[in-house]
Design a protein that fits this description.
The complex is a heterodimer of chains A (120) and B (110). Chain A is mainly beta and 120 residues long. Helices cover 0% and strands 51% of the residues of chain A. Chain B has strands at residues 9-12, 18-23, 35-40, 47-50, 64-69, 72-77, 86-93, 99-101, 105-109. Classes of the chains: A mainly beta (120), B mainly beta (110).
């Protein structure tokens, strides 16, 4: 059973960079089959795919966020991370890390999610 | 990228069947069979219900089924139960090598 756990600050000031980490247990980020994904959910709203990373470091991002996103992977620590720069109140959301089964947007394991609020 | 289109809400009585539609474009649902459905209860992370249009992960009830025609995918829940009351999201792979979700449908079991 793969378990994912998000960590990071719950409050970020406007214009700063949001940084989150996802620790993976029960599976390996170096698995050749899986892609490691970030998804967010605005309050009371739907899900938004942010992007994912393959263990080789290849990344794929949501075009609407691409200029502000960076996703990285640390295979030695079995974790991956998200950085979202120049945040505004519109970036307030629950952020989920997750596993994409095969790169075709099939999310079979999810973290519990972490609330991030952008406010001064 | 625009999200997939789902009805905001549907409802049904216990034992009945309901269907939730998910409409995309030729750049996502219309091109690929990589359509997934997720169930989300309040305060919980989403759970994978169906993938590849109609395949069920281990442990998911066969009361959940999926189909696709053209640019529209559908989720059918048969034999509605009170525990099925939740939000349901569809998603699809896209020709841009990205993912897109639907806006979500709130299912109320009357």
């Amino acid at each position: 059973q793969v378990h994912l756990q998000e960590s990071g600050p719950g409050l970020v000031k406007p214009s700063q960079t949001l940084s989150l980490t996802c620790s993976v247990s029960g599976g390996s980020v170096s698995s050749g089959a899986n892609y490691w994904t970030w998804i967010r959910q605005h309050p009371g709203k739907g899900l938004e795919w942010i992007g994912y990373i393959y263990y080789t470091g290849s990344t794929y991002y949501n075009p609407s966020l691409k200029s502000r996103i960076s996703i990285s992977v640390d295979t030695s620590k079995n974790l991956f991370s998200l950085e979202l720069s120049s945040v505004t109140a519109a970036d307030t959301a629950i952020y989920y890390c997750a596993r994409d089964f095969n790169g075709y947007h099939i999310i079979d394991y999810w973290g519990q999610g972490t609330q991030v609020t952008v406010s001064s | 990228q625009s999200s997939l289109t789902q009805p905001a809400s549907v409802s049904g009585s216990p034992g009945q069947s309901i269907t939730i539609s998910c409409t995309g474009t030729g750049s996502d649902i219309g091109t690929y069979n990589y359509v997934s459905w997720y169930q989300q209860h309040p305060g919980r992370a989403p759970k994978l219900l169906l993938y590849d249009v109609s395949s069920r992960p281990s442990g998911v009830s066969n009361r959940f089924s999926g189909s696709k025609s053209g640019n529209t995918a559908s989720l059918t829940i048969s034999g509605l139960q009170a525990e099925d009351e939740a939000d349901y999201f569809c998603s699809s792979y896209t020709t841009s090598t990205t993912g897109v979700f639907g806006g979500g449908t709130k299912l109320t079991v009357l």
